[in-house]
C-alpha cells in the first residue's frame, strides 16, 4: 500500500478580497504574504505535484494543513480546486487544517476550512467534517487531528484540546486492537520544535502521553517546511514521526524546495520515498538525499 503525503501548500489568491478583510491579524500577515510568501509558494508547483500524483496513483493521499495563507475565502476556493484535481477523489484524500487555515477568528467562527474542504475531512459514517477525522481503508487507518486555532500576532501555535485528545485515544485504541496500520496526521509537530513558544503545540505533553499509552504506527506532520524524522515513545517501542517540507516552496536548495513523500507500507513497517520538483523538467522526480 502506498500513501502520499504533502503539506503547506499556502495557496495565494486575493480574488474579490476587500480592505475590510484585512482589518485584523491579516494586515500584518498580508504584508508578509505580499512581500515574501506569495513569491515563494507557487500554485504551479502544486499543480505539477498533483499531476505527479495522478500519474503514480498511490492508494491514499494525506495533506497536513496550511492550504492557505490568510484563511481568505478566495484562498479556500483555490485550495479546493487544487484538491479536486486529484483523480483519487475525496474518499481517498484526507485533509486536516494548519494554523494558516484558521488564521483569524472570523475564519474560525465561519468554519471556513470545514465548509471549503468538507468531503476531504469526513469520517467514515459521518455526514460532515469533524476532528479527529477517522477513516479505515483496508489495512490502513487514518486519524487526522486538528491543531488549528486562531491566535494573536505573532503566534503560530496549536492546540489539540481535551475533547480531541479523548477521541484520538479511543480511536487509536480500537484501531490498534483491530490490527490496523494507524497513520496519525497532525499539522504541528507533536514534540518540542524550533521557537516552540511561538510556533509549538501547546498540549504536546498530553498528546505524547496518549501515544505512549495506545501507540500508532506512523505520525506525519507539516508546519516546519522541511523534511524531519524523529520518534516518540509508544507502548511497544518508538513511533516514527515524519515531517515533510512545503509542497510549493521555490528554492534552489534541494533540501528545501517543493516536495512530497510516499510511504510504502507493508504490515506494520514502511519505507519513505521523497519526490522533489525538478526545475529543468518542470516535474516532480525521485529525490535521493
Ligand atoms: Fe506552513
Ligand atoms: Fe503552519
Summed up:
The chain is of the alpha/beta class. It has helices at residues 26-40, 43-56, 73-83, 105-110, 112-117, 162-177, 196-199, 204-214; strands spanning 2-6, 60-64, 93-96, 133-137, 140-144, 181-185, 218-221, 228-233, 238-243, 259-266, 269-278, 283-287. The strands form two sheets. It has a six-stranded mixed beta sheet with strand order 3-2-1-10-11-12. A six-stranded mixed beta sheet has the order 4-5-6-7-9-8, with helices on one face.
Low-confidence stretches: none
Query: Strand order across the biggest sheet?
Result: 3-2-1-10-11-12
Q: Give the number of helices.
A: 8
**CATH domain fold name:** Purple Acid Phosphatase, chain A, domain 2
Q: Compute the separation of the termini in Å.
A: 23 Å
Round the mean pLDDT to the nearest integer and report it. Answer: 93
- Look at the structure and give the CATH class: Alpha Beta
Give the helix/strand class.
alpha/beta
Largest sheet: 6 strands, mixed
Features:
single chain; 289 residues; alpha/beta; Purple Acid Phosphatase, chain A, domain 2; 6-stranded mixed sheet; binds fe (ii) ion
Please give a structural write-up.
The mean pLDDT is 93. This protein starts with a strand and ends with a strand. 29% of the residues lie in helices and 24% in strands. It has one domain: Metallo-dependent phosphatases (Purple Acid Phosphatase, chain A, domain 2). With 289 residues, the protein is of the alpha/beta class. Helix 6 runs parallel beside helix 8. The chain has eight helices and twelve strands. A six-stranded mixed sheet has the order 3-2-1-10-11-12. A six-stranded mixed sheet has the order 4-5-6-7-9-8, with helices on one face. The site of one fe (ii) ion has 7 residues, from loops.
Amino acid at each position: 500500500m502506498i500513501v502520499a503525503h504533502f503539506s503547506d501548500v499556502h495557496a495565494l489568491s486575493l480574488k474579490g478580497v476587500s480592505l475590510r478583510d484585512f482589518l485584523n491579524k491579516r494586515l500584518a500577515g498580508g504584508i508578509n504574504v505580499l512581500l515574501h510568501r506569495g513569491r515563494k509558494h507557487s500554485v504551479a508547483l502544486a499543480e505539477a505535484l498533483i499531476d505527479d500524483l495522478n500519474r503514480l496513483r498511490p492508494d491514499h493521499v494525506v495533506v497536513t494543513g496550511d492550504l492557505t495563507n490568510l484563511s481568505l475565502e478566495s484562498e479556500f476556493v483555490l485550495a479546493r480546486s487544487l484538491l479536486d484535481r486529484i483523480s483519487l477523489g475525496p474518499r481517498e484524500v484526507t485533509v486536516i487544517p494548519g494554523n494558516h487555515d484558521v488564521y483569524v477568528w472570523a475564519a474560525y467562527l465561519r468554519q471556513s476550512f470545514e465548509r471549503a474542504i468538507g468531503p476531504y475531512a469526513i469520517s467514515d459514517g459521518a455526514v460532515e467534517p469533524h476532528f479527529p477525522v477517522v477513516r479505515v481503508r483496508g489495512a490502513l487507518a487514518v486519524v487526522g487531528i486538528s491543531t488549528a486555532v486562531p491566535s494573536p500576532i505573532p503566534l503560530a501555535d496549536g492546540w489539540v484540546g481535551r475533547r480531541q485528545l479523548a477521541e484520538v485515544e479511543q480511536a487509536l485504541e480500537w484501531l490498534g486492537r483491530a490490527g490496523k496500520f494507524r497513520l496519525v496526521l497532525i499539522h504541528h509537530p507533536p514534540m518540542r520544535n524550533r521557537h516552540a513558544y511561538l510556533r509549538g503545540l501547546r498540549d504536546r505533553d498530553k498528546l505524547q502521553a496518549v501515544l505512549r499509552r495506545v501507540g500508532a504506527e506512523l505520525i506525519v506532520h507539516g508546519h516546519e517546511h522541511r523534511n524531519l524524522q524523529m520518534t516518540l515513545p509508544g507502548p511497544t517501542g518508538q513511533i516514527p514521526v515524519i515531517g515533510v517540507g512545503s509542497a510549493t516552496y521555490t528554492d534552489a536548495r534541494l533540501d528545501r524546495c517543493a516536495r512530497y513523500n510516499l510511504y510504502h507500507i507493508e504490515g506494520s513497517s514502511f519505507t519513505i520515498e521523497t519526490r522533489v520538483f525538478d526545475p529543468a523538467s518542470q516535474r516532480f522526480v525521485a529525490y535521493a538525499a
